[in-house]
Amino acid sequence: xxxxxxxxxxxxxxxxxxxxxxxxxDQTTVTDIAARAGLDKRTFYRLFGDKRxxxxxxxxxxxxxxxxxVAASEAAPFDTVVxxxxxxxxxxxxxxxxxxxxxxxxxxxSPELKERELRKMGSLAAAVAVALRARGVDEVTATLATxxxxxxxxxxxARWLGSGGGSSLAELVAEVAAELRAVTAGA
Amino acid sequence: xxxxxxxxxxxxxxxxxxxxxxxxxDQTTVTDIAARAGLDKRTFYRLFGDKRxxxxxxxxxxxxxxxxxVAASEAAPFDTVVxxxxxxxxxxxxxxxxxxxxxxxxxxxSPELKERELRKMGSLAAAVAVALRARGVDEVTATLATxxxxxxxxxxxARWLGSGGGSSLAELVAEVAAELRAVTAGA
DNA sequence: ACGGTCATGTCGCATAGTGACATCACTGCT
DNA sequence: AGCAGTGATGTCACTATGCGACATGACCGT
Lengths: 187, 187
Prior knowledge:
Two copies of one chain form a homodimer. By secondary structure, chain A is mostly helical. Chain A has helices at 8-23, 30-36, 41-47, 59-72, 77-93, 97-108, 111-133, 139-162, 169-186.
């Protein structure tokens, strides 16, 4: 049997990204992905829950970063969440516009992948809400601050991808947060 | 060949709901659903995109109601969206607590179904945003008002299902909207 | 009665995803 | 060295999803 593969998970994720970009998500089989990584289909399924997961292997880091930032903050709930997303923007998305754009174009081309993306953002939000409650924030406030913060990030993210990249994602997050305040205040 | 089945879609949706409740989503095959409705597996796939869709056949009505309410309103964007969800709460969810609770318990028991629910809420939100923009609201404001309104509805919905049903969903929507204003204002 | 739709059934197929078992590299112990 | 155990991987077989292609039979208008 082939020796244990160094970083099998990473190699599979990379192979999946390449193939999805080359032929599209639906036109790529799990066997294809495994073959490109020099592994078996069964091994893929031991490292990833399903085919879609191969595109979301970075979300653990995202969640860790986000939760840590929330736990470290002492600001008001909504400000905390927005600041945490800004932190993520700086630490994870800086200088990655093109990489992120490619990945996002793949996701946007497949309804299945969009579904999974929504699920990931939802579980991110749930983790943030838990971190907020650990700070003594009541549940409803935690949920509302969390979801509003996620909305701000989504809008800022879309704007970042859309425009050439003149401003940083972190700046855009701050801007959009201000706009949300205006909208809910009754603009 | 059997005569054309009256309301085949509705019968399949009902059969699916029953079976999901009896044995769970994963333990129910599409062939089972079709058999209970007296139809063939292939017919199911002609009427529903996939197995999950059978649980979401009501979402077209939801979207229509929501969009109509948005189009008819002239209030500020966020108020418009909240009012539209209140309208939906009154017209579609009144006196359906137990039915809705059953359906939701099925959805909550399967990650796949939760994913699909998120997608449905997302497409609902997209439709609302389009309706808002048709009223001349700029895109970012429309998105933020739309997403914030959806958040309010989700939280109110969860609270409605959680508590015995003393207050109506419409009332809860109004309450949560007020709380969201407080949270984004900096509670 | 005849031809044309159209919903449905039948058949076959590629693929997703999983359980069970075999295999081999590496580790530590004797 | 040798040997048992562990853990990652491969192999095989299987169920279920979802879809293309074609057949069939009920209904409709003329």
